Amino acid sequence: MINRLWERLVGAGESLLGAPTMLCMYCRASVKRYALPTLSLCARCVNVIPWIEVLQCEHCGRSEQCTDCTRRGASRLCLNRSAVKYEQGMKEWLAAYKYRRNERLNGLFASMLHTAYKRNEHDYNRSGAIHWVTHVPVSKERMEERGFNQAEQLAKGFGVLAAIPTVPLLARRRDTAKQSYKSRAERLDDLKDAFAIDEAGIKMILKKTVMRPINIVIIDDVYTTGSTLHHCAKTISDHAEANVYGLTWAR
Length: 251
Ligand SMILES: [Zn+2]
Ligand SMILES: [Zn+2]
Description:
Strand content: 15-25%
Order of helices and strands: HEEHHEHHHEHHEHEHEHE
Bound molecules: zinc ion
Largest sheet: 4 strands, parallel
Number of strands: 8
């Protein structure tokens, strides 16, 4: 009873003192208002985000000179765009997200993906509106070890913001995690058969989408060499007449 009364008094006090302070989604600092209307962040956090605004590579969305795309040649991935440059500060943000796995950071990262999508909407809609959002899968072992797949969580959050339905379209055949010990050629070879189609997912989109090709955005956290997204796009377009676009949080 006393507690209730106290809460009401505090509530009344807060409303007299003006709007309650809000918390930065990343660092939890209290702010009077957020620095941007679209992201619930304090000014300090907004200022450290290295947004990718100018592209050097139209294919992968890189902000610097790009040799990966010229080296690879033709790709089944239509294009990729990313929200931020994968610099030290952003590596820390991603590590915090993976470590804490919380809804709050997922919401923040999904909003950042949505910002990048809106900025590049013209490129994504070059062959009509996007029909589906999907994600890069992880292996069963990885999933058991980590308990969640951040690409899947990001895809779900982004799908809600962009009002595009999400669907799992791929499964990972085996774990290709220890890639850092391998040469580039070994890594590429490793990824060749790493992905399998999700039969139920592909059947569903073939049935539910009237238009052809089907326009799909695939979500991942980081675009490194592009091999993962390239192989994912190939696997999907081997099974459906589709345009597959990449959208990653960092590049
Ligand atoms: Zn902050
Ligand atoms: Zn490129």
